[in-house]
Amino acid sequence: MTAQFIPRPYQRLIIDHILSVPRCAIWADMGTGKTVSTLTALDLLTLVDDRPALVIAPLRVAASTWPQEARKWAHLADLRVVAVVGTPAQRKAALASPAQVYCINYDNLPWLLDQYNDGASWPFATVVADEATRLKSFRTRQGSVRARALARVAHKRVDRFIALTGTPAPNGQQDLWGQSWFIDAGRRLGSSFVAFTNRWFRSVRVGSDRFAVRLEPFEFAQGQIEGQLKDVTLRIDAADWFDIGQPIMQTVRVQMPESCRTIYRELQDEMLVQMQNATVQAFNAASLSIKCLQLANGALYTSDAGDYEVLHDAKIDALRSIVEEAAGSPVLVAHHFKSDLERLQKAFPAGRHLDKNPQTIADWNSGKIPLLFAHPASAGHGLNLQDGGHHLAFFGHWWNLEEYQQIIERIGPVRQAQAGHRRPVYIYHIVTEDTVDETVMLRRETKREVQELLLEAMK
Fold first, then answer.
1. Across residues 244-261, what is the average pLDDT?
2. Domains by residue range for the chain, with CATH
3. For residues 426 and 248, is the Cβ–Cβ distance under 8 A?
4. What is the pTM of this model?
């Protein structure tokens, strides 16, 4: 079922800005609806230009988020969005499929240029760079291979360029030049990165090594740089539009591979499945729900001794995108199973586990921990985690409503306000589609009895 799109005032601003400024930047916080707003503008542009648009995004976002968002809204029913992902053969087939919008990940940009004679037959009139900070390393004579590939067509073949990001300068104002070049070829911030830094930065030596220097902006730099970009940039601050007394909730949907889906269905239907090294059996509805939650997270326990088999990393990939979009802002990650924790620690070596050592909480609140992995049962009453961050991702889900509410409260709006932080709290629910994850979400939303939902889910 599709939903009716009633744009909020700031979403109207995004749509109007894209339509009225052909080459522009949208700096909008997470949760402000950049994707549906941009798709709405692209849909309107099809009325005046029948050439397709290209969305460039991180892999999971290109493969799932943009196509799913288009299918979600009734007004986009005629807008066909195709993900150009997978093997080279699958990507070629996707390009051959008629659509108004094609989505590809940044890593495949060089491949895409090759498909169109090094850009000579480039068909995309509009390019959308989602999470445009991926282009920050571009330099006219060097930089990442993917950014240089895009640069070959960005001004010669592309009429409209839309740069989307919630964090335009995660490492400082020096991040802005590469992104801005794709909008105006250096007209506003300088024809080269050297010209940009010479105008607005000084070099400061780091330590005793005379070759180790860092860029430090002049006192007037921020105001002048912002002034240069103001006519093409729209800034949407969530705090200006949302009641920051309420968390901003986002559901990040992922799909398990079909091979895992087969195992999931077999377990659900037969309450027994043969794995590579063991037979896994559920003896009742409760144990079946636990096994299904494990599978949704990506790993299934195969013995009472704690052995488990990893089946997919869909949620880890989704969390990686969340961390990237947070752009340096620490993320609290709620997990449930020990297998989840071990896999998270392996995927994110810089992350730390919320243990009983008081120094861990002190390090988190002082900004020394980029990711903090916490079991909701160990992050309940009395813990103050609000100084460390305002992003919380639920990697795994569980039935206990109180534990769910308590871990949210550790960084929640009330505690943020008490600590003097005027910033919204972001809550991400990473949910594997068509699994018991969705049942748990429903349980917490409606407070229906666990047993009733278990029986419904496991029929």
1. 88
2. 9-241 (3.40.50.10810), 248-253+313-457 (3.40.50.300), 255-310 (no CATH)
3. yes
4. 0.73
